[in-house]
Amino acid sequence: MRKLFAAWILGLVMTALPTAGRAVEAQLVSGAGPSTKIVQLFFEHFGKDPACRNYSFTVPAPSIKHRGGIQASDTYLFGRTGRPLNTKERGIGKEEIFLAKVPITFAVGLETGVQQLTLKQIEQIFTRRITNWKEVGGNDGQILLVGREATEALFSTLKRDFPFFREVTFDRIFRRDPQVVKFLMSPAGRLAIGFGAQPNFRKHNQLRVEGFSSGVSLGLAYDLKNADHPVVRAARAYAASDEWKRLVRQAGLLPAG
Q1: How confident is the model at residue 22 (pLDDT cuts 50, 70, 90)?
Q2: Which SUPFAM superfamilies does the record match to this protein (predicted)?
């Protein structure tokens, strides 16, 4: 009886070994800041797909920019994008999976006294034809323009969609959306206006702009050498699924296509 019991235990152990001993490959999904939250949401759900059973995915919050995401896909299966790939990036063997279209939003400091503007007023503010908040119904205070680096993905989109942004000069320039948010919430940024990816800004700080609509399709980049990798194939399929589109809408974003 003891031998039979021992054999039964050994059988259980041997059955469990393939699962318990299975190596899990760590995948880092780094890159552009604007796509951080949507990529985190994607892997929260896609990570449960059977194709991912041998992988763990980490989506770090710090941005290494769109370009860094492209470079990350040299080492890992995916990198995060901040805009659609251009001809040069496709020319080095990169492809993309659009996850969502992220709206661009404007946000203001806590003492501007303004909650809504028109697109024309936005143009006049950023071209410095309006320099005081009282000129648009707000508090008496000098407007401070907060912006991003010239090559930043969302700023590039604004310059494409609204050419007056090509001539804008900023009073303060930040590298990441969270830095802009922090500044707008601080005493130094109380009279400032800035912009960024809508999910990264607190709702009470967002400015409604009549006549304005702009956004950027973003998601994941991968190297063509991995195009037939089971995880990449499964990611493409999940990104096109009705389930994912529903999750995107619930997050307050727009499906990519």
Answers
A1: low
A2: Periplasmic binding protein-like II (SSF53850)
